[in-house]
Design a protein that fits this description.
The chain is mainly beta and 505 residues long. The protein has a single domain, classed as Porin (Beta Barrel). It contains seven helices and 24 strands. The chain has an 18-stranded antiparallel barrel. Strands 1-7 form a two-stranded antiparallel ribbon. A two-stranded antiparallel ribbon has the order 17-18. A hairpin with a 5-residue loop joins strand 10 and strand 11. Helix 3 packs antiparallel against helix 4. The protein is globular, with a radius of gyration of 23 Å. The two termini are 31 Å apart.
Length: 505
């Protein structure tokens, strides 16, 4: 309640400037036309409105598309025109939009992660209704979803003993001005280079309410977020209160080079309350806590790099360090380093296609500590990555088809050790800790994946699908167990959007 009052007070304090700004809703990360825009961004045909950080506002997408249209080749211009038709908003000071959709989902496994399949297969009904209201600098967005697939998905933390279940895919209020944006509520987020789950924040789980503040421009900005995680219970029956905080500072070094430094923290304890020290966007949590007050928490620090090396080569890298043992590295009881990183290369391929290649690794004990209530999880599901002790090498080609569809062939090699993000970790300084490798505990499962994705929207029809053949050795981390199987999922819906003006004094 205290946090809500703080946000309400901030919005009311800024309301006198309402006449100088128009709010814009954020472009949902499951929008079926977003892969086409991401394809244009990866090729360099369109500027990235927000490198490494998703989502961005619909108005930001329109701005970069309109700028790109001036110099676009004829074939690209047609695709840009189609996206502008979808994303361009009314300019009325007060307006509304309603967008219902209905259809079905089918999948070989209910979990959304194809590299860690779980849950039963099936065909499930699907329906959603998007509601938007914009009042000058304030946007209100709600998108309730009826999705019975969730009942079979082990990553869904809601009730399972129902015949029907639903969720709020989006539910937020956002106040926006030239230099400042506030957001309170729920919407999917991703901090990372794309085509692989971001390390600090990702869409792996189903999201949670958070409070966010962004100050600055596209090239120089400060971002701060805070959220209350689900309570847990320890072995003594005590209720453990848990909280998550994130800070990000992004800046441009030169036209082709941008960087961002970030940190995330999880607090957990029976007497824990929302701690305003960690919500301070100008406070470096690693300095103020780990090397300052010494408060009990788990802090991960990271660095993101965005470098356009040449027209055809764009590099992005993300490095996260949870714990680095810089002392006594030769000790037989040395605790393994906890880290994760991703390196991605992308760019144009010929006149119309695009490519992306990436390598990502998460160490054997990444995202967890000897204090399990400070793991980077919410209800046992990862806040960024939900699996550690693995690495992935992938290559993608993006192929636009006409103006509305995107095909994405994929080749992936994935290795998964026996470490799991919710497993207990050996206490530091013990023989067990010294015997834990930095990467790949026990028998390693190998997955070789060849897949094809399709996404897009034509008229009232929207389709998002992905299907692949998996050759798996040591399946389930069982030595010598080899399987071949098909993994696929499809969401198909029909719908329409209506919008209009809100009139009144």
């Amino acid at each position: 309640m205290l946090r809500f009052r703080w946000w309400a007070a901030a919005i009311l304090w800024l309301m006198p400037g309402a006449a100088v700004a128009q709010a814009s809703p954020y472009l949902a990360l499951d929008d079926p036309s977003l892969p086409i825009l991401e394809h244009l961004i990866s090729r360099g045909d369109v500027a990235d409105p927000s490198p490494f950080v998703r989502p961005f506002r619909r108005a930001d997408a329109v701005r970069v598309l309109e700028a790109a249209l001036k110099t676009a080749a004829p074939a690209t211009a047609k695709v840009i025109d189609e996206l502008l038709t979808r994303y361009t908003e009314r300019t009325d000071e007060a307006r509304w939009r309603v967008a219902p959709r209905a259809g079905f989902q089918t999948a070989s496994h209910a979990r959304r992660d194809p590299l860690h399949p779980a849950g039963s297969d099936g065909i499930w009904p699907y329906a959603e209704v998007g509601f938007e209201g914009v009042f000058g600098p304030v946007a209100l967005v709600a998108r309730p979803v009826g999705e019975t697939r969730l009942l079979d998905d082990p990553d869904w933390l809601g009730r399972k003993n129902l015949d029907f279940t639903g969720r709020m895919a989006d539910a937020y209020i956002s106040a926006q001005w030239k230099w400042v944006r506030l957001l309170y509520g729920k919407t999917d987020q991703e901090w990372g280079p794309g085509q692989v789950y971001g390390i600090p924040i990702s869409t792996y789980g189903y999201g949670r309410e958070f409070a966010g503040l962004r100050v600055g421009t596209r090239d120089y900005y400060l971002l701060s977020e805070s959220a209350q995680l689900r309570d847990e219970t320890d072995s003594l029956g005590q209720v453990i209160h848990r909280y998550f905080f994130a800070h990000r500072l992004g800046f441009k070094i030169s036209d082709p080079l941008r960087m961002a430094v970030w940190e995330t923290v999880v607090l957990g304890g029976p007497d824990r309350e929302f701690d305003w020290r960690y919500n301070n966007p100008l406070s470096v949590m690693l300095l103020a806590n780990t090397y300052g007050l010494g408060d009990d928490s788990n802090i991960m620090v990271g660095l993101d790099l965005d470098w356009k090396i040449a027209r055809a080569v764009h590099l992005q890298g993300q490095l996260a360090i949870d714990d680095f043992q810089y002392k006594n590295r030769s000790s037989p009881t040395r605790y393994p380093d906890r880290y994760a990183f991703t390196i991605a290369l992308f760019g144009p391929l010929g006149d119309r296609l695009g490519y992306r290649a990436l390598y990502s690794q998460a160490s054997s004990l990444a995202f967890r500590t000897s204090e399990p209530f400070q793991n980077f999880t919410d209800g046992g599901v990862g806040l960024g990555r939900s699996f550690d002790d693995n690495d992935q090498l992938s290559a993608f080609v993006t192929v636009p088809v006409r103006r509305n569809w995107m095909l994405t062939p994929e080749l992936t090699m994935f290795r998964q050790g026996q470490g799991r993000i919710n497993d207990p970790v050996p206490p530091p300084g013990t023989t067990a800790a010294g015997q834990t490798p930095n990467l790949f505990i026990g028998t390693v499962e190998h997955t070789y994946r060849a897949a094809l994705g399709i996404s897009g929207q034509k008229g009232i029809l929207a389709i998002q699908a992905n299907a692949g053949f998996h050759h798996i050795t040591n399946e389930g981390n069982q030595a010598g167990h080899t399987v071949d199987r098909f993994e696929g999922r499809l969401t198909a819906t029909i719908g329409h959007a209506w919008q209009g003006v809100i009139r009144g004094e």
